[in-house]
Amino acid sequence: MRLAWQTVRHRRAAFAGTFVAIAAGVALVSGAGSLAASSRPQAPDRYDASTVAVHSPSVGQDEYGNPEYRSWTTPEAVRIASGLRAVPGVRAAVADPVFYVQRIAAGRPAGDAEASLRDGHSWPAAALGGYRLTAGRPPVRRGEVVAGDPACQGAEPCHGGASPGDLVVPGETVRVLTADGPQTWTVTGTADGPGWYVPADDALRRSSGVRVIGLLVDGDPAAVAQSVRRVVGDRGTVLAGSDRGALEPDAVSRVRWLGAQLLIAMVSLSVFVTVFVVAATCGLGAAQRRRETGLLRAVGATPGQVRRTMVAETLVVGAAAGLTGVPAGALAAPLLAGPLVRAGLEPAGFTVTAQPVAWAAAYILGVVVALAGAVVAAWRSSRVPPLEALRETAAERRAMTPARWLAGVLGAVGGTVLLALLPRVPLTQRTTAGTGAAMLLIGAAALLAPVLIGPLVRAVTWPVRRSATALLVREGTRTAARRTAATAAPALLAVAFTVLLTGMVATIEGVEGTDRAADIPAALVLAPDGAPGLAAAAVRGQPGRSALPTRVLVGHGGATEGLDAAGVDGPDRGAVLTPATAARLGLRRGDDVRLWWADGTAARVPVRAVTRDAPAGLCLPRALVREHDPVALTPVVLLDGAPVPATGARTMSARAYVQIDIDAEGRLVRLFLWVLLGLTAGYAVLAVANTMAMSTAGRRAEFRTLRLAGAAAGQAKLVAVAEALLAVVAGTLLGAVVAAVALTGVRDAVAAELQRAVPLVVPWGAASLVALVCAVAATLASVTPRLVRAETAGSGR
């Protein structure tokens, strides 16, 4: 270890790239880990005073792995709450029915539409958050409400529509939008917490069953929770302490999930690229130190000692880099909390806390990644023969090993074959298969770069082939294939991924809107305007068709699963299924669908038809859906006549309607895309700069010879810069060609899947920007070592 430490001290420049790569990777993992660990599910603020809660029973998981719950019916919730009040230590047990309410301001819904779905509560439930009246009295009859304080702040701001300038006082009336339609309520009081609070019986009528009963307890919450479990049994799940995070609304959990996906992708890419950079750095360093390694072997060092020495050097660098990266990431994480919230990747009120476990894991991971990148180079160094120290010159060894040849050829053949077979791949899998083929071809190009660089260099330098400087640059680049490929590979990967990923997104987005609009059999639609959906009053009387979505639990084959269903108009009280849903549930015409509605009510609905023309997999009578899911909102009405004006609704073209979702999805996709491409480009710049700096610093004798042969200092610098730019240009061209070919295959797959022509969108601007950044980094890295040693090289010392 002492030898490794001394080597690192005296060869700091050679290890600088490895240090920066590991430090950057550790900083990213440390910061992302702090963000992820801080983003744990949390109970909403409205349960702050309820240290123990009971959730309705779970009946399995949905298709995304999230728990599927059955609501309590109103009588069930009342009975359970009544029984819980008798448990020692329970001061109060309050059912918390939740419903949609949104204030109307200037004739349209105001505030956060998504959050308004959870803004309606019963007045007794205000005690679960510790909220109290600030003025007036509680509501006692329908049409009365306590308005939450519009100036409140916290994890759940007052989204219900009021703002500090829209204060209401007891005795005033307020216009609100509910699932039934616009209503006028009388404000009887104001509270110091967010939301709208109506009498308990009114809240139960407006909600789709009850999911949570909050408890106000005296004494130890854990002991009370244990007693409550014995009373509740299998009728619900008792939550206490951190388990109360299960009370977090699904919409908030989805936001956290999106943020987690970005963090996971960033960490995964960082780990992968860090291994790549460290491996490339160690490999180049090992090649430059062959004579030094041969000298060690000549004085008696065994292959094992050589391996251990090189691994120890990397361990020293990794340990030092980790000590730099961990605090950098820990300090940067809190600064990213705000941008993540604004980007919709973390819920409002998200803060970053100290996460020592995440910091320790990042440090250990950085060291492990560094060692993983050094293993192959250490193994190759241990095979250097002792006679290497006696060589007068250090000619570059073969750049292509048998393993690299095999992997590169297999990747090229596999990618080509997969592209050729795309027309025979099932339509639904063609896009995925095309992406896989692209990845194989890009990987093959990177592996075969030492072989492909030569012809590319000749082609690029053909116009200036008669120039002596161009000849020197061309032959120097071709002769040092390993060095050139090491510089070109990062640029190749960065440009290829930029062209492929941004091209795929742009190509698909270009046709997605038209394709979705074609699926809507109407030119005009009635869509929500500032609201999360259309209220019943807005849909009623409209000329056109619509469906009322709901979620039901269906029992079949001894199991219970959740299904998305749609309420459709019609006098029949039966169910209509698509063939796929009927086969999945094992049902046919005349059978009964055994289900639980959104409000927890059990029912049997006869199957009156199985048809491919059903607008949803399970269609139910709209009147029944409205009866059992009072908070359900209609997403859109397909108009076939002049619309009737309604609050919270607007008319637009079908194309404009689908574009709303496309823009929302596209914003997230582009955010993910540019973050990942930014990381890729950043590491590519680091790899290019590191490779060029190491290569140039290791060629002092070569440049000294060039100066002694009569070249001026400027000419020597020109040669270094030209070689660097030539390598980047070759890598850029190779990456662009491979990505364009792969992107064409993906475009053809999308066109076949959509059965229409799809224009190819190639983002040359983004690719050019990445290539330019790589070129600038290579130029600066190739010149800087020359500037430091220009005087020495010029004097011939």
TrEMBL record:
Pfam families reported in the protein's UniProt record: FtsX
Location relative to the cell: Cell membrane
Regions crossing the membrane: 262-287, 315-337, 357-379, 405-425, 437-457, 484-506, 671-697, 718-741, 761-781
Residues covered by the ABC3 transporter permease C-terminal domain: 265-386, 675-786
One Gene Ontology CC term in the entry: plasma membrane
Cited PANTHER family: INNER MEMBRANE PROTEIN, MEMBRANE COMPONENT OF PREDICTED ABC SUPERFAMILY METABOLITE UPTAKE TRANSPORTER
Domain of life: Bacteria
UniProt keywords, alphabetically: Cell membrane, Membrane, Transmembrane, Transmembrane helix
Lineage: Bacteria, Bacillati, Actinomycetota, Actinomycetes, Micromonosporales
Main location: membrane
Topology versus the membrane: Multi-pass membrane protein
Full protein name: ABC transporter permease
